[in-house]
Amino acid sequence: MQVRKLGPDGPTVSCIGLGTMLLSISGRPPEDQGIRVIQAALDHGISLIDTADCYCYDHNDFHHNEKLVLKALKGRREQVTIMTKVGCRRPGGAWTIDARPEYLTEATHNCLKSLGVDTIDLLALNSPDSRVPFADSVGALARLREQGKIRHVGLCNAQVSHIEEARAIVPITSVQNRWHPQAREVEKNGVLDYCKRNQITFFAYSPFGGTLGAPTLGTLKLAEQARRRRVSPYRLVLAWMLAKSPVCIPLPGARRVESIVDSVLAADMELDSEAVKAVEATLPPR
Ligand SMILES: NC(=O)c1ccc[n+]([C@@H]2O[C@H](COP(=O)([O-])OP(=O)(O)OC[C@H]3O[C@@H](n4cnc5c(N)ncnc54)[C@H](OP(=O)(O)O)[C@@H]3O)[C@@H](O)[C@H]2O)c1
Fold it and tell me: Which DSSP category does 247 fall into?
């Protein structure tokens, strides 16, 4: 598995990470299957896992995903960098943003307990909260970092203006935004370029468009290219992202072992600039 450095001063991790959200939200597989998916990812070289306190059914089930990850990593914790996220709540199963500093601090302390660690490898803010000055939310994470509760700070769902504002407060290691063949905003809103210029890791979330988008990949023109290369369209999408940005680490999700075992093979594909152009010619317009 190829590796990439996390931010300007983080550890080296696999160039593909595992997003574990689908193992805990509605439609999740039985626990033993979820554990097998995580362990298969590790067996195939993945060393970065993306979880969040809010990956669960609802508020009664909060931290389900972090606990599942911890269970799956028994005896292998040192192999993996874990990124978790705070700033989202699940009242009655809904998804709501809460990035008030006091809530972020409380949520981070609960993540430390769920993950059974004294310091979180990488903690990301789930989303800017329009009701809270962004600097206040980031300030809470900066204080937690000063206290040694967090090693690295990340942002999610951020614009360039957010990243710049945050970097004036605390070093930012990563940005996690949506990027998939049918949602290419980060290519034109400057986020992908900004991350590259500043050696900030760009985590591409929902790289296949989530559970709704993934089945449609096979119907895009891209699937013809994938067939010609004798790979799945999923693998081609990940290889395209890796070739397009040297700071990108895609975060494919999976509920089945077969899915993640197929996706990790994208790390072995090399697409030159002609191949990247050819893939792009098959994508819907940006
Ligand atoms: N920060 C944020 O706001 C945010 C938001 C959403 C997601 N995320 C992160 O992004 C991660 C991934 O996103 P996601 O899970 O929504 O969607 P995704 O990775 O775009 O798609 C997952 C779907 O693709 C299918 N799939 C994956 N690899 C496949 C393969 N090689 N062959 C066939 N099917 C394949 C899976 O099938 P099976 O289920 O059948 O295996 C699953 O249905 C999440 O786990 C989470 O960590 C972050």
Answer: T
Which residues, judged by CB distance below 6 Å to any ligand atom, belong to the binding site of ligand 1? Answer: 19-22, 50, 156-157, 176, 205-211, 214, 232, 234, 251-256, 259, 262-263
- Distance in Å, CA 102 to ligand 1 centroid: 31
Token output for 23: 């193992």
Neighbours of 157 (CB within 10 A): 17
Percent of the chain as helix, strand, coil, to the nearest 5: 45, 20, 35
* Catalytic residue flag (residue 194): no
Output the six-digit token pair for 64. Answer: 């389900």
Alpha-carbon distance of 248 to 284, in angstroms, equals 21
Nearest 5°: CA angle at 234, between 231 and 238? Answer: 100
DSSP classification of residue 183:
B
pLDDT 10s digits, 128-166: 999 999 999 999 999 999 999 999 999 999 999 999 999
Report the percentage of the chain scoring pLDDT > 90.
91
Q: Exposure string (b/e) for 182-193, b if CB count within 10 Å is 16 or more?
A: ebbebeeeebbe
214 CA: nearest ligand 1 atom: 24
Dist. CA 252 → ligand 1 center (Å): 5
Is the Cβ–Cβ distance between 103 and 65 less than 8 Å? no
**DSSP letter, residue 15:** S
Beta-carbon contacts of 30 under 8 Å, excluding residues fewer than 6 positions away, are none
Q: Whose CA is nearest to atom 13 of ligand 1?
A: 206
Domains of the chain, each with CATH number or no CATH: 3-216+241-269 (3.20.20.100)
Residue positions counted in the chain = 286
Nearest-angstrom CA–CA distance, 5 and 9: 8
